Amino acid sequence: MSQIQESVDVEVPVSVAYNQWTQFESFPQFMDGVESITQVDDTHNHWVTNVAGVEREFDTEITEQHPDERIAWHSVGGDTSHAGVVTFHRLSDTQSRVMIQIDWEPSGLVETVGAAVNADNRQVRADAKKFKEFIENGGSHSAGWRGNVEAPS
Fold first, then answer.
1. What tens digit of pLDDT does each residue of 95-116 get?
2. Which terminus, N or C, of the chain has the lesser number of Cβ atoms within 10 Å?
3. Rounded distance, CA 69 to CA 146, Å?
4. CB atoms < 10 A from the CB of 4, how many?
5. Beta strands 54-66 and 2-10: pairing type?
6. How far, in Å, are 34, 60, 82, 94 from residue 52 at the CA level?
């Protein structure tokens, strides 16, 4: 199991950072390797990725979501296994911290070597930096669904 933790401070209010992060279909604009995300319903997304020549299609389910606080998910089906949580922290009226935590299971030689040399950590760090640039330059952060999803008991 590979574990990644990264944070980025952004010069936008926490609600703007949260709203942008819930616009899953915009992820290809700031995440390398993400070709597309289709939001199926309020808690399910379909991902198509291509990282280092490894193509994957999989679905994710949001397992917990609280506006301006956190979004947690895990993969379902497909040939990849991962879970994560993104938390949003108010630093001031105009600044927020976005904390990203991902646990994933590399499969195959390319992913196993990539995880061993921390390529996955570097990629998440680079994507967090691109998220910062994207959102601070206007992004596409229209108000998204702001409902709650309670964690399973």
1. 999 999 999 887 777 777 776 7
2. C
3. 11
4. 19
5. unpaired
6. 11, 21, 18, 36
Q: How far apart are CA 35 and CA 31, in angstroms?
A: 9
Q: pLDDT at position 62, please?
A: 96
CB 100 within 8 A of CB 83: no
Helices marked H in the chain — which ranges? 14-21, 108-116, 119-136
pLDDT in tens, 23-62: 999 999 999 999 999 999 999 999 999 887 888 899 999 9
Q: Please check whether residue 111 is in contact with residue 54, taking contact to mean a CB–CB distance below 8 angstroms.
A: yes
How far, in Å, CA of 136 to CA of 66, rounded? Answer: 23
- Strand order across the beta sheet in which 54-66 lies: 2-10, 95-105, 81-92, 70-76, 54-66, 44-51, 34-41
For the full predicted model, state whether its pTM sits above 0.85.
yes
Query: 144 pLDDT exceeds 70?
Result: no
- Helices and strands counted in the chain (H then E): 3, 7
